[in-house]
């Protein structure tokens, strides 16, 4: 069993849900050699998150963004407001979705379902670049 780890910096994206599966895979060329393993993907931020969801229909990320904004509105009377009206809602959304996802690996491929992809959930209007750490543990 071996361990590999890499970091990648994602360019700034607008608020919303953005597929990053290919960037995650590209960050770890060792993935292609793994017979059996597990990939852990972690975001080093408190106002963005990661999730796995449908990767085929472009309406899905739009609906996810609309839904999460309805559940966690910016108009709520938050106490933490120094960094702008989108900051505290972004922290709540990031806590709801989480800071990491794990995906099984077999024969050099992520074992995502047919319609699944890894999403960066950008919860700020101008979140800036985002740092991701990918850790692979596997049998070669």
Descriptive overview:
- The chain is an alpha+beta fold.
- The protein has one domain (2-139): Jelly Rolls (Sandwich), CATH 2.60.120.460.
- Helix content is 22%, strand content 39%.
- It is built from three helices and eight strands.
- It has helices at residues 21-27, 59-71, 87-97; strands spanning 2-10, 16-19, 36-43, 48-54, 100-106, 109-110, 116-122, 130-139.
- Strands 1-8-3-5-6 form a five-stranded antiparallel β-sheet, covered by helices on one side. A three-stranded antiparallel β-sheet has the order 2-7-4, sandwiched between helices.
- The longest helix is centred in the middle third of the chain and has 13 residues, at 59-71.
- 27% of the residues are buried.
Q: What is this structure's SSE topology?
A:
Elements: E1 2-10, E2 16-19, H1 21-27, E3 36-43, E4 48-54, H2 59-71, H3 87-97, E5 100-106, E6 109-110, E7 116-122, E8 130-139
Antiparallel strand pairs: 1-8, 2-7, 3-5, 3-8, 4-7, 5-6
User: How many DSSP E strands?
Assistant: 8
Could you tell me how far the N terminus lies from the C terminus, measured between alpha carbons in angstroms? Answer: 7 Å
CATH class: Mainly Beta
Which architecture does the CATH hierarchy give at level 2?
Sandwich
Helices, by number, come to 3
Give the oligomer, counting copies of the same chain as homo and different chains as hetero: single chain
Rg over C-alpha atoms, rounded to the nearest angstrom: 16 Å
- Strand percentage lies at 35-45%
Classified in CATH, the superfamily is: YjbQ-like
| Helicity, as a percent range | 10-25%
Count of discrete domains: 1
Mean pLDDT: 97
Strand order of the largest sheet: 1-8-3-5-6
Estimated structural class: alpha+beta
The poorly predicted ranges are none
Q: SSE string, helix = H, strand = E?
A: EEHEEHHEEEE
As for the CATH topology, it is Jelly Rolls
Identify the overall geometry: elongated
| Largest sheet entry | 5 strands, antiparallel
């Amino acid at each position: 069993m071996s361990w590999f780890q890499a970091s990648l910096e994602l360019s700034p994206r607008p608020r919303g849900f953005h597929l990053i599966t290919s960037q995650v895979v590209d960050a770890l060329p060792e993935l292609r050699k793994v017979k059996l393993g597990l990939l852990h993907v972690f975001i080093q931020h408190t106002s963005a998150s990661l999730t796995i969801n449908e990767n085929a229909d472009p309406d899905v990320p739009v609906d996810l963004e609309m839904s999460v904004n309805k559940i966690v509105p910016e108009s709520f009377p938050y106490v933490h407001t120094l960094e702008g009206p989108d900051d505290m809602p972004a922290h709540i959304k990031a806590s709801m979705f989480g800071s990491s996802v794990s995906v099984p690996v077999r024969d050099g491929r992520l074992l995502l379902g047919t319609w699944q992809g890894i999403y960066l959930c950008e919860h700020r209007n101008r979140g800036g670049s985002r740092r991701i750490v990918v850790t692979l543990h596997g049998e070669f």
